[in-house]
Write a structure and sequence with these properties.
Blueprint: H1 17-22, E1 26-28, H2 34-44, E2 50-52, H3 61-68, H4 70-81
Parallel strand pairs: 1-2
Helix pairs in contact: 3-4
Length: about 80
């Protein structure tokens, strides 16, 4: 997992572009607001491997991890990749 950008900064570092072309699966998690949804749509166009996901609990991935724990977070990632 890697944080590579945000809707606020509206850019993804170019060093990540090759990963978008070669990774078998990429999970994208942005905020549920309009800016986050727009960023998700733009990022989705980069690769068919990209899947936009929502966190089951909490505002963001970190909140979910802190609330539910490592096992739940790991299981959520595994299920999201299926």
């Amino acid at each position: 997992a890697a944080a590579i950008g945000s809707a606020a900064n509206r850019c993804i570092a170019p060093r990540w572009y090759p990963k978008f072309l070669t990774a078998p699966s990429i999970l994208i998690r942005m905020d549920a607001d309009q800016a986050g949804q727009g960023a998700s749509e733009q990022i989705s166009l980069l690769s068919r491997a990209i899947k936009c996901v929502q966190v089951p609990q909490g505002k963001d991935v970190n909140d979910f991890y802190l609330l539910a724990g490592q096992e739940a977070a790991t299981n959520w990632i595994k299920m999201s990749l299926e």
